[in-house]
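User: Please fill in residues for this 418-position structure.
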């Protein structure tokens, strides 16, 4: 038997099994196509970027590890992303940070950046069937300090306001060019290591800065604001907390970014989805994996992730939720890290799309709580993986663990030689 026919047989059996529970696997396969991921460019190079300035990663985030092979140039990064995409079924996007501009060897400060610095990215993305998303970059800069958009110093605050306005203009150009809105994420690390004497002051400043930044209306980009619990070295106070951005987003109609590493470890991010959908326009996700803290480990298929995907599918909200990834692991092969995290995210959605939700909801409506619990448990071990394998096969990407050898090969030929 060929590998293809084994996958086909397993799929046919799974199809029958799911049909008993009223689940249409072909519809799930169709819907999987809508699960488009926004790959974070910064996994390929440990959040370094291509600004022609020496400096280290600051702003409350940290990458650990020194595995060889990090992308050092735009060309290397593009090659690595293309390689990773060979092992991730479906059509996806690339999420760029401002520091990844094509600056052509020049020093372009953050308040000078222009759409032209992203022209080559737009063209490259088009050639490769990718859409772009964007992020302003407040970290790793001499003016980053502990406070950027919430800085009481007018000069520093205005510098970052100018930077963020320019990033919106770049996002608008990207959106226009690709004929699809560019999601622009705004995350600033502003906070303090020790307890501030005036919490309100900085939040009021951040609100003012955001109002000024968002004053220009654009049609081809969407603003997302990312909250966080704390940054490294900024543990006692985060200006842009979840309450802050949820309030701002609900009041001003902005999209709140949920980074799954930015909450207390026992807090359910999945539970937030249905509330956000009622009060904010859409949702941006940064799928990540905290281990004890916001540590940005490679995403794996765990309960947090499957809960999150299930909530999105139960809310029928795939078209209102944007799935970005956000982790940085420099201890293992970086392309492998992309593939593992992306595939885990897709598997979570595959499982969610195969949930026997009609029957579960019927049990619930009838007050049959034992039945609901029992079916939820049984659903965990239904043969979803046979459907996932079929999805990979249909998309011409390696099925199961066979991508490992491909990543090893690329390491031997390319990243290992850097
Ligand atoms: C930091 C935020 C933010 C960054 C990226 C690089 O805690 O999650 O999204 O990880 O912008
Ligand atoms: Zn994030």
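Assistant: Residues filled in for all 418 positions:
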């Amino acid at each position: 038997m060929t590998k293809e026919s084994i996958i086909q047989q397993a799929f046919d059996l799974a199809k029958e099994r799911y049909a008993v529970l009223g689940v249409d696997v072909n519809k799930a396969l169709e819907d999987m196509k809508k699960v488009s991921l926004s790959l974070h460019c910064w996994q390929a190079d440990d959040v370094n970027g291509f600004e022609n300035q020496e400096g280290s990663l600051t702003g409350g985030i940290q990458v650990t590890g020194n595995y060889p092979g990090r992308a050092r140039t735009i060309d290397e990064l593009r090659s690595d992303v293309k390689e990773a995409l060979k092992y991730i079924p479906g059509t996806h996007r690339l999420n760029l940070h401002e520091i990844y501009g094509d600056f052509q060897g020049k020093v372009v400060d953050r308040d000078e950046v222009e759409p032209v610095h992203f022209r080559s990215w737009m063209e490259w993305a088009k050639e490769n069937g990718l859409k772009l998303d964007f992020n302003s970059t407040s970290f790793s800069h001499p003016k980053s300090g502990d406070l950027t958009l919430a800085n009481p110093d007018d000069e520093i605050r205005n510098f970052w306001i100018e930077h963020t306005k320019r990033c919106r203009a770049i996002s608008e150009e990207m959106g226009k060019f690709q004929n699809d809105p560019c999601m622009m994420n705004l995350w600033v690390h502003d906070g303090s290591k020790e307890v501030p004497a005036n919490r309100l002051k900085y939040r009021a400043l951040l609100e003012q800065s955001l109002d000024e930044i968002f004053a220009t209306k654009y049609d081809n980009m969407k603003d997302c604001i990312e909250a966080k619990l704390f940054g490294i070295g900024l543990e006692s106070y985060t200006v842009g907390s979840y309450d802050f951005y949820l309030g701002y987003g609900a009041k001003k109609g902005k999209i709140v970014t949920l980074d799954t590493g930015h909450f207390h470890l026992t807090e359910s991010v999945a539970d937030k989805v249905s509330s956000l959908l009622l009060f904010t326009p859409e949702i941006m996700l940064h799928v990540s994996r905290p281990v004890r803290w916001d540590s940005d480990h490679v995403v794996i298929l765990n309960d947090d992730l499957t809960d999150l995907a299930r909530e999105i599918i139960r809310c029928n909200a795939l078209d209102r939720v944007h799935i970005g990834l956000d982790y940085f692991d420099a201890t293992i092969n970086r392309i492998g890290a992309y593939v593992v995290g992306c595939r885990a995210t897709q598997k979570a959605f595959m499982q969610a799309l195969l949930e026997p939700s009609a029957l579960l909801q019927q049990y619930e409506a009838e007050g049959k709580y034992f039945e609901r619990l029992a079916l939820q448990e049984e659903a965990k071990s239904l043969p979803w993986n046979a459907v996932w394998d079929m999805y990979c096969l249909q998309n011409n990407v390696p099925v199961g663990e066979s991508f490992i050898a491909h990543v090893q090969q690329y390491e031997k030929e390319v990243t290992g030689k850097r």
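For context: The pocket of zinc ion (ligand 2) is lined by residues 187, 226, 259, 286, 326 (CB under 6 Å).
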